[in-house]
User: What shape does this take?
Amino acid sequence: MAKFTAKPKDLIHIDFKNPQTGWMDTPVDIREHMYCHPSKAKDLETVGFPNIHEWKPIDENWNLPENWKETVLNGIKERLQKYRSFHVFMDICVRCGACADKCHFYLGTGDPKNMPVLRAELLRSVYRKYFTASGKILGKTAGARELTEDVLKEIWNYYYQCTECRRCSVFCPYGIDQAEITMIGRELTNLVGLQLGWIAGPVANCYMKGNHLGLEPHTIKSNIEMMLDDIETITGIRINPTFNRKGAEILFVTPSGDLFAMPGIYTAMGYLMLFHELGLDYTWSTYASEGGNFGFFSSNEMAKRLNSKIYAEAKRLGVKWVLGGECGHMWRVLHQYMDTWNGPADFLEVPRSPITGTVFDNAKSTKMTHISEFTADLIKHGKLKFDKSRNDHLKVTYHDSCNTARGMGMFEEPRYIIKNVCNHFYDMPENTIREKTFCCGSGTGLNASENMELRMRGGLPRANAVKYVHEQHGVNMLANICAIDRATLSASMDYWVPGVGVAGISELVGNALIMKGEKERTADLRGETLPGKEGAE
Amino acid sequence: MYNGGKILIGIIVFLLFAAFPFYNNIGKVSAKPEPKLDTPVIQQLAEKKCVEPKEFMKAEHMQMLNDWRDAAIREGKRIYVNSEGKIFNISLQNTCMNCHSNKKEFCDKCHAYAAVKPYCWTCHIEPKEKRS
Amino acid sequence: MKILFPFFAVIALVLLAVLGTAANLHFLFGVVIPYAALFIFIFGVIYRVLKWAKSPVPFCIPTTCGQQKSLPWIKQNKLENPSSTLHVIGRMALEVLTFRSLFRNIKGELRDSSKFVYGSDKWLWLGGIAFHYAFLIVLLRHIRLFAEPTPAYLYILEAFDGFLQIGIPRLFATGVVLLAAAAFLFLRRIYVPQVRYISLAADYFPLFLIMCIAATGIIMRYFFKTDIVGVKELTMGLVSFSPVIPKGVGSIFYVHLLLVSALFAYFPFSKLVHMAGVFLSPTRNMVANSREFRHVNPWNYPVKVHTYEEYEEDFREKMKMAEIPVEKE
Assistant: This one.
């Protein structure tokens, strides 16, 4: 595969003209840089996925199993009976088009099949053909079509050009949620062995080793120890966190991305410093070392299998409640799915901040609280001291992650924290934030490198809004509460808005946090010299 | 979770609306209105004919009355020549109501049935009738 | 084809009614078909709803469009992120009665191949709400044909609807609005390239049908006046199950009636079921309190997991080397 070399100024020439042919008669064009490589057989074997076979997206023949059609149709039938959402969403769309220009992939590609309505119609047309009277009788006139290999390929192509961000659902008069349809569409592709490598790999890792990146227990510890060294260099304080410790009050779970790569590790440093300063009785787990859940991008069952570790580990360690780090889809899963899958967590207690005494009633059943809720509460009670000037070199804007925005509704807590630790904060234009926020363009397991054109296109609307505040206010730091954002927005910023960095909010907290006994800081968590401290070293 | 109860309530509400015309009319007798033409004046007419033919009057009387009003009040015209060339005085009270002096038994019959509220009587004085 | 087929289908219905009345099939078109259509409508809709109801809602998946309920000092957006049934009722009422989500609509555009701009775009909302409310009031106005005596509230409704006092019979604003809004929605489908691209025959058909229904209704009232007393005789006969076919009701009425029957019969098998479906949409009708109260999935089943014991088996030595506590030494 040739390297992706398109320049931003060329990529942004987006043609919004529709093809001359109707969408049913326009064959799918699966092309380089727009799709991810298929999964490795061993990863699928690890978790026991069906119909594992060799195939390539650009090949004519996908080596589908003999009964693939029956499998897919039975899969649809089963899911219609299991999910009212899917069933209702297959039936009630009126094709008003309100969702069309809401999708970042449509805005970035101009491909009409990336309009959420049409993405849904790809599957809906099959549903009509096999499950409705009008589709059976009237066929194409009723918007129905046969399920053929080409149709399956088309569904595959476009359902892996959707990041389940739910922005369409906000604008739909019936709340039709393409994320819900995409999830089911992806389950169908999984039934016939059409998984992505970038999803299957992390899933297998997470299943066997506890986290997507496949960090083994000693590696987790040593990675964190490296961060501790850096923290000591910067603050003069040595922190001693614990791992898999029984009897801790709180289990802390965060996406493994925070333990591995920049800029995620700075966020993790922020957590470590905050918890140390509070003297929090908490522990990390190497078994439940993943908050994120790539299983969620494969199937409901796989997601549940991976998620089960959090409660299991909380129970084994005998903690009182669980605190969760900054991550987007992780919180969609924790907020809307975990308790249903693996609860009730009656062996835990309702989360209560040991510092402020605040009881988090909103997590009364799930017993898991978000780090931003936890931190905002600490700040409100005046339990933390900040030197905001340590973030003065940063002009910050905040990216609402899709999942914490539209699957949770966390808008104010992060902003409250940022405003308390930074002097310069500028929100992006209102139609691009909060419930109308744009996806980073690489969520749901699409953050591979071979699909870079897709990622840059999907990330364009978000980047474009960042560019606006970059130009207007000199914004140079894009804060967020999502590990995938931290990984993918960095690439998207470098491409579209060079000069803007990406940071988790806890990194900004860590920068500003005045710790007991710390030395005068001359550098931020990235080791960059603070303004005005150039001569101090 | 099925929310069966709520859905059932929804279906009942839907049925209440959709079937309203049916249960609303149970036990009610509704007969087709028969406007009465037996006023003394009509009985004395040699040829029992209205200003225009009956079918036309049935469909278009409102339009004609409207035209008459405009002609009489706005243009001061009082002469109407009908399709047969006969001349009538343009006047609700003196022409129309002269024959149809039984508003309750004539006008109101159909108007009430079809739920029509003409605004003739916001200006004109309703004829005083005995209850029949 | 997507436009012509439904267009001719509606024309065929019109011709069918004209021919039917010419062939003296008044009983078929005035009694049998309307009864059948209403029957299909009522039981079809209930059937569809029950079919949806049979599928459970396994997860609590509201789309949150406002601040969640978290810390007491952060103001929750109760209508966009409801945490109680009462809030949900408010959210649904806004959705159903004011088309809240459609009102949010913004148009995204790429300008000069360099920047995206987003502007409020309420045309679809305006067209949609005008269409639906006009349709509702027109429908309610028809109660006068199905109730004797006509209920008093209907006169009030008509007084409002006819407040312009234009013409005789007084012009009802909703009839015109209905036709205009349906025409707007149709033209939008033709002229907005994206919407044209996604439109199916099934999107044009109900529009043509409704435009034709509105047009025949308007014609009957204002132009070729139909014998309203005769019409009511027929409709009252229908609702009291003693059907009569009055003389002198013109064929245009039968055209109107057949088109309405077609709409009713078509309703449950088409996208028009969004009328019922909107109430069952889990992203809107659920309380967003999934961390506060456990949502139960009726088909939740045990899954194969990789237990801690298995994990420790794999990594015990490495864990011990790294001084991470283990269960079995």
In short: Chains B and A do not touch (no CB pair under 8 Å). The CA atoms of residues 36 and 106 of chain B lie 5 Å apart.
